[in-house]
Amino acid sequence: MDRIETERLILRRFTETDADALFALLGDEEVNTFLPMFPLKDIGEARQYLRHIENHIRRKGFYYAVCPKEDDRPVGCVHVSGDDSHDLGYSLRKEFWHKGICTEACRAVIDMLRRTDVPYVTATHDINNPRSGKVMQAAGMTYRYSYEELWQPKNIRVTFRMYQLNLDGRQDRTYKKYWNEYPVHFIEEL
Q1: Mean pLDDT of the chain, nearest integer
Q2: pLDDT at 140
Q3: What is the value of pTM for the model shown?
Q4: Quick check: 25 and 31 in contact, CB under 8 A?
């Protein structure tokens, strides 16, 4: 599971040589707008983030560099947390937006998860970032509920939409942690 290939992409583990590409991705303020972190300030922070990725993988999560087949340089990333949320996250350099790359990468990771014991995958998006919700829908996920959170580390109030895809056939299951944790929660008509 260290490498996944799709029609246009290679998803692989990040290496130390990817620091420049990671900085180009996560250092971009516009790309970072809806990410749960501040933009990377320099190449040193990118190298430090590569260590964070390795720790993420050690905690039973998955983290892939998204590379076009014609170039092994990462243009994005997709990951799934190892905790009980099995949260799917992704980012992509803006010159690659609106080309279906995130959807293609997310579908590939979800297909890989079907061969593991991960029973479901969740994902959330800020209501001000509806294109992220479109990626979730295109990857087969369905909207379950919305909730409001004082989002850290950016310390801003955000309304999130939570999507889920059950991989084990139990269609009645909805991950309720955010519903239970945040007092402002509701179901929207989408």
Answers
A1: 96
A2: 97
A3: 0.95
A4: yes
